[in-house]
């Protein structure tokens, strides 16, 4: 299933997600933001369970900000998890 999330407080404008029916991340694509970091995060979470990624990324901060692109990905996945139940 494909999902789109509008992050806040970060440089990325959109996070596009493709999640399997079993809750496995098939693909993550960040639109905007730091290209290298976004590609790295996307590659690392591919094939992982939603719950594992949320546990690893939630609460990560970027500099003085209270959030980050990894944290926003965790928040997007939390919304996906709620929608899937």
TrEMBL record:
Q: Which domain of life is it from?
A: Bacteria
Name the reaction it catalyses. a 2'-deoxyribonucleoside 5'-diphosphate + [thioredoxin]-disulfide + H2O = a ribonucleoside 5'-diphosphate + [thioredoxin]-dithiol
Q: EC?
A: 1.17.4.1
Q: Can you cite a GO biological process for this protein?
A: DNA biosynthetic process
UniProt xrefs under Pfam families: TSCPD (PF12637)
Task: Report keywords, A-Z.
Answer: DNA synthesis, Nucleotide-binding
Checking InterPro entries in the record gives: CHP03905, TSCPD_dom
Q: Which GO terms describe its molecular function?
A: nucleotide binding; ribonucleoside-diphosphate reductase activity, thioredoxin disulfide as acceptor
Q: Which residues form the TSCPD domain?
A: 4-80
Record-stated family? Belongs to the ribonucleoside diphosphate reductase class-2 family.
Q: What is this protein called?
A: ribonucleoside-diphosphate reductase
């Amino acid at each position: 299933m494909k999902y789109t999330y509008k992050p806040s407080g970060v440089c990325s404008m959109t996070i596009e997600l493709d999640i399997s029916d079993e809750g496995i991340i098939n693909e993550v694509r960040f639109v905007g933001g730091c290209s290298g970091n976004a590609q790295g995060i996307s590659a690392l979470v591919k094939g992982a369970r939603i719950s594992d990624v949320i546990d690893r990324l939630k609460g990560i901060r970027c500099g003085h900000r209270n959030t980050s692109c990894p944290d926003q990905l965790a928040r997007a996945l939390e919304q996906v998890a709620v929608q899937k139940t």
